[in-house]
Amino acid sequence: MAAQGACGECRRWQLDSTCCRVGLLRRGTRLRRRADDEDHISALPDDLLLHILARLGCARAAANTSLLSRRWRGLWTRSPELNFHMITPDQLHAALGRIVRPAGSPRIFLPSHHSLSTDRISSLLATTAPLAPTELAVEIHSGKRGSRDADAVELPCFDRTASLRLDFDQRLRLPPAGNFAALESLSVGSGHVALGGLLPRCPCLRKLRFSIWQFDSVTIHSPSLQELDVFAPVQLQRVDIVAPMLKKLKFSAINDISNAFSLSLSAPLVDDLSWRWNARSTSDRFGVLWCMWSLKLKTPEHLEHTLVTNSRENTHLQPQHCPHGHILSLNIGVTDNLGDVAWTFEQEISRIPARNLSVLELKFRQEGIFMEQWCWIYFDFAPLYKNLRWN
């Protein structure tokens, strides 16, 4: 973990960092001792020393405490928390090889000037898996994104890991055998994994998050899942979610959904819902072409706490005034030409995954700028839902 072998860019980062520059001392620098020449810190019990090392928040700083005393040498390898950053891949592999099993909660971040291939990332994960971390976070700037299985990163079976966060571009290939028996929280960045093969091997999964979903179809079937967060910057064709224990759902499709979009949602316990996509629907009313730019469905917990009264004065929304159903929020505006758009407002709204709508929130866009005004209309949507008309 010393500076030897670090690239020039990494070393500049280390010198600029409060934690990483510890130990990068110039020649001739001496450590001061107390007047009684006794090392009182090193006399502390191991558990307390390990707690101090964990508080440093940096594996390099923890390793460089070996300069303090022989008593501290190698102690960092037993630290319950290790944060590896501003480090070369070779140094990282060497450091991981010295950690005493089991590891606690290692966090690995490789700076962007170190771009790793799928083989290097696979090797890094394979080196980490035997440490049996309870929590693991890996953020790597990878090379060219591959689309074939041969270009995928091999994911080891982290059978004792409860929380796993993987953030890199490459696809993930599942291990041939084994379950993620302890996994409760999984966060995947822009990588893609075959959910049909993964989710049945995660019997305890509670939280699932995809920062950037890259494909036009989303299929998630899990009997244990309670929280789901999906962000999709691509045009979606199909969403299929079956999660009987799901309580919190956040879904964002910022690149519209296709005209052939199909939705199948079975999650009867959801009570915290945020469903959004950038719509491209139009409605010709009053001789003017209106465009719906975005549509968002949310639960009352996401409602603003002020409203405009009949007297046009802002008042606070009291708890007794909060709606019991979902809130439909639409951003609409006048447009001259939107191209080939087949869907109307009514058809677009009919595709949202809720029927108990009680609040309509309208935000207007004028000449490309959102107006900072909106209105809330409280009523029961259900009886009118199938024959909703705009006037």
TrEMBL record:
Residues 44-85 form the F-box domain. Gene3D superfamilies: 1.20.1280.50. InterPro entries: F-box-like_dom_sf (IPR036047), F-box_dom (IPR001810), FBL15-like (IPR055312). SUPFAM superfamilies: F-box domain. It comes from the Eukaryota. Pfam families: F-box. PANTHER family: OS10G0396666 PROTEIN, OS12G0545400 PROTEIN. This is F-box domain-containing protein. It comes from Panicum virgatum. The lineage of its organism: Eukaryota, Viridiplantae, Streptophyta, Embryophyta, Tracheophyta.
